[in-house]
From TrEMBL:
<protein>
    <submittedName>
        <fullName>HD/PDEase domain protein</fullName>
    </submittedName>
</protein>
<dbReference type="InterPro" id="IPR006675">
    <property type="entry name" value="HDIG_dom"/>
</dbReference>
<feature type="domain" description="HD">
    <location>
        <begin position="21"/>
        <end position="124"/>
    </location>
</feature>
<dbReference type="InterPro" id="IPR003607">
    <property type="entry name" value="HD/PDEase_dom"/>
</dbReference>
<dbReference type="InterPro" id="IPR006674">
    <property type="entry name" value="HD_domain"/>
</dbReference>
<dbReference type="Pfam" id="PF01966">
    <property type="entry name" value="HD"/>
</dbReference>
Amino acid sequence: MADYQELVQLVEQANVHPSLGLKHCQRVYNLAKELAQNLALDDEILYTSAILHDLGKYPAYALPNVDHSLRSKGLASNILQKQMFSPGKLPKVLDAIESHMYYSEPGRSDEAVYLRDANILDNLGNIGIMRLFCLVGQDELLKTPEDAIQRARTFAEALPGKVATKAGRRLAVKRREEVLRFLAGLRRQTAEYSMI
């Protein structure tokens, strides 16, 4: 069994922006459970994957020119083997971590599929908008509020089609509408975004 306290401490000690850190991991875990409420997912696999899925993205652990999913998978493998994590469950955790991004194919287990859907959905809706605007000036791709607006628009159009599960697709439609309503209101209130 994973030492959850140690895993949480690894994320907390990374000193990463709150919209990317532990609370994001907790939201992804909780949303994956909610989406899969009619399935019997292995909670240890799901929770461990959720906590460690972005570890390779955090500055304390990232490597230049290495996809964070692969870096996270490598870090998780080392950490969990040292913890004597169940050898039967380790491949499922590593698969879920490697396949958690929208540009990846869904993983092979239900835990991996639902983790990926939850991670995608955390980039949509009100929470997705909040995360984007919180990261302006903190992320190299989000230098200005206009960058966040463009990313929100892109996510609203592209990400719902990446969601694999029926429950996830239903929620993606709702969260997409939240984003589009927000952007329409912002556009009206800022003279076509000119006063942001």
